Amino acid sequence: MRLLADLTLPRPELLTVQAENLALMRDAVRRSRTCTALHPYEGSLTPEGLPQVPLTSRDRLAEWSMDPGTPNRITEGDIRLVLRSSGSSGRVRTLLHDRPFNERVEAIGARGLCLDGLGTNPFVLNSLAPGDLFGGFGFADAVLSRRGAAVLPAGTSMPAHHLAELITDLDVGAMVALPGYVERMLTEIPAEMQKLRTLYYLGERMASPAAEALAAAGCAVRSFAYSTTETGPIGYQCSHLSGADHHVHEDLVIAEVVDDDGRRLPDGVPGMLAVTVLADTGTALVRYLVGDRASLRPSACPCGSTAQVLRIGARDDVSANLIGTVVTRSMFDTALGLPPDARYQVAYGSERGLLRLTLRGAALHGLTDEAVRTALGRHQTLRKVVGSAVFAGLTVDAGTAPRITARAKAPFFWSEEDGDDRA
User: Fold this and answer.
1) Is the CB of residue 54 less than 8 Å from the CB of residue 61?
2) Buried (b) or exposed (e) across 315-333, using 16+ Cβ within 10 A?
3) Buried b (16+ CB within 10 A) or exposed e, 147-156
4) N or C end of the chain: smaller count of CB under 10 Å?
5) Residues 198, 173: contact at Cβ < 8 Å?
6) What's the longest Cα–Cα distance across the chain?
7) At what angle do helices 329-336 and 369-378 cross, to 10 degrees?
8) What contacts 166, CB < 8 A, 6 or more positions away?
9) What is the CA radius of gyration of the chain?
10) Membrane-spanning residues where (predicted)?
11) d(CA 18, CA 29)
12) Is the dihedral of CA 47, 51, 57, 61 positive or negative?
């Protein structure tokens, strides 16, 4: 596989490299004894034929990951890393990554990381959660090391006052963390957090008052990478992109925005994001639905990259079963008139067999308990919950940030029985 030093080639040349890498993948699949899932479609692994290959769902990948034969594996052996997806966007999936794939993941991540404003050999806090078969911590460590940073492997369990001392004593320039962890640290050590020159987020998007507070203090808020456990890096932010926009690593990734039938949508039209990772070893992922909605547009970026710009939208809907009724985030968004990326959480718990809800997050500012209950009661599905004989009421707490897990993720639906990891 040919990895470019950067993506500033004229676009026809960039697409030529992409086509060459796709051809290498097609040849590897054709030779493979194990990649039986793609054998019927190997002839369509071309730039023109790719839309003829069926989409790969997360459920399908989960089924393959439990199969000892793993029918989407191009080559056998040379397994170097076993990771699991978090399951936050579907069933948990177990991935067997080989050495060439890991090396590409690290190289692509390092190529896309923007260090503007940090100088040489900056101190960077790796405040992602290590272990539990999740790869974010190791990915950040490897990428930062490749770019010459001095990495502080802090994780998520270091006491806040120790973190504050490190930031001050070592003049730490940047931190890599999930948004929920950033929110917590801004509450506990606000002065030190606002000394950072760059805050890199990974996973969820930083679309919250936390990002505004950091930006107001002169801290650049940037995506570390748009990446998934299954695919590795998909996109990156140069210094000219922010928020949901990322250049696509088009030499080794093909991104498509498709409708429900798998047909490609025109530039600028949002749909489901399907990703093909170009590889000639390890696992084959073709037209994989990562669980995000997105849109694509041509690049006219001052950085000189000719790679398409991918704008990430909302995640696929999440659901919970409340007293026998399946409810989704989009139902609450619709009922409360909130956008899909609003930062809030619906917690549920039982009191003597009765259901009680607590809605937390700054996005709820100005909403009263009664106003929320009335709004939910007008929704055709949510009314079944708030109108039930076992519904004990709800509380709106706009002043409290959403609860986060030990990995600093903030699930939209939070079971109070699971407890709070602060304890």
Assistant:
1) no
2) bbeeebebbeeebbbebbb
3) bebebbebbb
4) C
5) yes
6) 66
7) 110
8) 125, 152, 154, 172
9) 22
10) none
11) 17
12) negative
Residue position matching structure tokens 């590889």:
279
Is the pLDDT reported for residue 422 higher than 70?
Answer: no
Cα–Cα distance, 368 to 398 (Å, whole number): 9
Give yes or no for residue 423 having a pLDDT over 70: no
Amino acid at 167: I
- What phi, psi does 111 have (nearest 5°)? -60, -35
Q: Strand 345-351 relative to strand 413-415: parallel, antiparallel, unpaired?
A: parallel
Query: pLDDT tens digits, residue range 99-117?
Result: 999 999 999 999 999 999 9
Number of C-alpha atoms within 13 angstroms, CB side, residue 220? 18
Both tokens of 266, joined, read: 């025109």
What's the angle, vertex CA 106, arms to CA 211 and CA 246, rounded to 5? Answer: 40
Instruction: Kindly report, residue by residue over 56-82, the tens digit of the pLDDT.
Output: 999 999 999 888 788 999 998 778 888
CA distance 392 to 83: 41
For residues 173 and 61, give the distance between their C-alpha atoms in angstroms, rounded to a whole number.
39
What is the tens place of the pLDDT at every residue in 247-303?
Answer: 999 999 999 999 989 999 999 999 999 999 999 999 999 999 998 889 999 999 999
pLDDT in tens, 77-102: 778 888 888 665 567 888 888 899 99
